[in-house]
Design brief:
The chain is of the alpha+beta class. The chain has one domain: 3-Layer(aba) Sandwich (NADH Oxidase). The chain has 6 helices and 6 strands. The strands form 2 sheets. The chain has a 4-stranded antiparallel sheet, sandwiched between helices. The longest helix is centred in the middle third of the chain and has 21 residues. The chain is globular, with a radius of gyration of 17 Å. The model has no long low-confidence stretch (mean pLDDT about 95). The chain binds flavin mononucleotide. Flavin mononucleotide (FMN) binds next to β4. Flavin mononucleotide binds next to β4.
């Protein structure tokens, strides 16, 4: 991956993309610790901090997760995952907290010269299997792992990849009242 140089400070965040193909080298213990500190300091609803993080550096565990469903088969080739476990007491606010902490980990990984990607376990049965693999009690909300590593590319290698790029602002922004544009 080329060195990232930015003409605007916000570009460092705007250019964070999902990576699915990684070099095999391990993520350093220092980098893992920095990512966990960033995760720990993420804001959450009423500061409940309803999370637990499982650092997965065992290739066999990553392979098992990758087999939960085809769209996450790329997880098998990554050096590290951070599985998110939410308490399960308030699924609605915890879902929001889960999204916030995920995005912070991904941004922090990019700031460390690494990359990352989200992998969702899938439907209820696949979530139950993910919990079984990782030893997570069934009452917890656990449905994703944030994968970290040094990306080879940010191109999506999957045959059924989503459409890349983003909608223009003109399609997604209103002013003062929905539907009113300038
Ligand atoms: C809730 C959520 C679930 C996702 N699940 C998966 C997944 O299971 N497998 C995968 O390869 N990418 C997954 N992604 C990544 C999205 O496909 C990715 O964010 C989107 O295509 C935009 O990619 P880009 O930022 O590289 O353009 C998920 C993203 C989110 C926010």
């Amino acid at each position: 991956m080329p060195n990232r140089e930015f003409s605007k400070p916000t570009e460092a965040v705007r250019t964070v993309r999902q990576a699915r193909v990684y070099h095999p080298e391990p993520v350093s213990a220092d980098a893992v610790n920095e990512l966990l500190q960033v995760a720990r300091w993420t804001g959450s609803s009423r500061n409940t901090q309803p999370w637990h993080f499982i650092v997965i550096d065992d290739g066999e565990q990553l392979r098992r997760i990758s087999e939960l469903r085809t769209p996450i088969n790329w997880v098998a080739g990554a050096p590290l995952g951070i599985a998110l476990v939410l308490d399960g007491a308030n699924p609605s606010s915890e879902g929001y907290d889960e999204g916030r902490v995920t995005e912070r980990i991904l941004i922090a990984a990019n700031m460390l010269g690494l990359g990352g990607g989200v992998a969702f376990y899938g439907d209820e049965a696949q979530q139950a299997e993910g919990k079984r693999i990782l030893g997570i009690p069934s009452e917890k909300l656990a449905r994703s792992v944030v994968i970290i590593g040094r990306p080879v590319t940010i191109k999506d290698p999957r045959p059924n990849r989503s459409q890349p790029g983003r909608k223009p602002l003109s399609e997604i922004v209103s002013h003062n009242r929905m539907g009113v544009t300038r």
